[in-house]
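I can't quite decide. Please look over this sequence plus structure tokens:

:::
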Amino acid sequence: MAEPDKPANVPQMAAAAAAGAAKTAGRSGRSTELPEHLKAYKGVWVFIEHDRGQVHTVSWELMGEARKLADKLGVDVSGVLLGGPADKLEDFAKEAYVYGADHCYIMRDPVLQGYRNEPYTKGLTDLVNQHQPEILLLGATTMGRDLAGSVATTLGTGLTADCTELNIDGRALAATRPTFGGSLLCTIMTLAYRPQMATMRPRTAPMPARDERRTGDIVTMALGMIETDIVTKLLEFIPDANRNTVNLAYADIIVTGGKGLKNADNFKLVWELAKVLGAEVGATRAVTQAGWCEAERQVGQTGKTVRPKLYIAAGVSGAIQHRVGMESSDIIVAINTDANAPIFDFAHHGIVGNALQVLPALTQAFATRLGKQIRKVA
């Protein structure tokens, strides 16, 4: 005769379920606990991007962010420099200390003269495996995006791209980025893998203050790769003479027009105000898609990230995909007929009115004001 089923031990089952929940995440059942061998990873690294003797400013912006993260974790900041015999890597390292680095790792090799994905991926992954940083940051530039993806894949770790904010939650990097077409912001954490990797676009973070008193030490490491190991060959660098010279990301004043201006003819009002102010012209995604303005002037998640001293937005609703590209501006002036437009939630000054009437008035007022100042100086 079969024995009746024994009553379940409910407290034990609940405890087991809770333990299981702590170790798994979502439907995949992947562990969210950091394995013991990865707990030895310490420090925040910044890949210092340079090309033709110049360091990309996003590297120094990231150095400032790395310093904040490292101070919260109680660890050091290190810069990583890869290059060839002609690159001034030691000079770049000195600059890194001034912006907040404690150490610099330098890998110099003839095959690293000029960026190619294969040798740079091997060099950076070798450095990571040898020295074990817990966080690795790269700029979301053409080079940085290409390198970050291949390094993360090689290391088998997580990468959060195009971040708008970096923070620390416990010992985890909390990386915030737009998602769902820019309609939401989400925070992503790589809990069970190291290093935690993230890219951030230029001008998303402020330039840190220079401290000329800071110094640091240099650690060198050999690449161990020869030219015949590399599939791609760098034959020649040919600058694009026809490339547009728009420097939107580093403009002090930007006047941006949105779809609220109705048509391309009305968008000329933006150009007229920008000319008087000596400003760059920006545009929303809807405007560039409509062909009113070139794509290089788009501000937002899929365009440029800017931090001007003055940002004037005319006929711009202020959706998240645009906001993430300009909300760090020192002063934002919004012009919109809709008093409930999202842009008024974060603009410093707002004008509820028709941009087709306000823009010409502003252009005339600034022209008169600036004209008087010029005459006084003369």
